Amino acid sequence: MKLGDMVMVVENHKGTETNFLLNLTDYMEAALKLWGEHAEDMAGVVSTLYETKAGKKDWSDLYFAANKSIHASFCTGEAQLRGFLAGNFNDGEWSFDAERCSKECLDVLRIYNLKPDGQPQFPYLHYERVEHIFHAGEALHNMNGNDYRVLAALSPDDLLVMSLTDSQLIVGRGVKLYERYPKGERPDDESVVTGIEWDHGVYLGQDITRIDFDILKQEYGEPDRVENVSDMRDMVRRNFWMQKNVEQKEGLPDRVRNAARDCLENTFGTSEPEVFDKMLDKGVYDGMCHAREEQKQISGKSR
Q1: pTM of the predicted model, to two decimals?
Q2: Cα separations (Å) of 54 from 28, 76, 107, 165?
């Protein structure tokens, strides 16, 4: 059974809430038992539950009497499961009833190294490194319980990611992919959890418009590889706009902005983007990067 197939259930009886975990079949049986003569509405009940899996609803609510109800949701991730076990979705008095859980759900807790109270279950877990090339767009599960979307692979081990929980932007340094399973057990499709760990994270906030991606690339990325004319022109364009952004940035002293404009004029022959683009397309700068590389080789390392 996968984490996302598990149904988190909160049963409210006269204000006292009981949490438990069920597979879909057991959830339908529990609802039928309470629903009684209204069993013909079960198709709608299941349809509403699946809206929680699709992200259209947070919880599916069933009311059987004035003082009894069931609130259920498919589990969307490890962070949500930990919150459920900790009572973050409860109001007032609550408890977790492991005896009412489906056996498969308790197995999921074991695989994710969780007790019913959300605390670690095993003192030891086995981690096995997996070779993987990270790419922009993929979703990654962190072994700390959070999920992230890769925005850019700055280098093979340094990633710019966004938290799927709170949209926090982070540079993950030294990211590695692992398969994890309880130590001493034979790994299989059900018991293996695949996820990442990193050496440390650089937290950048939630406003992507305040991030200077050129600086991130310089700080954490690998040097650009120039293998053809297109690569070279892309590099020239980036260099132009790095200086142009300084010239246009409000709040900087005039002497700094003027120096940036003078640098543009001296390096590219213009500080106007329209003129620069025309000259770039005509190949005026095509020898620029190659000349710099040759100059470095001739002059050697700086002393």
Answers
A1: 0.61
A2: 19, 9, 24, 16
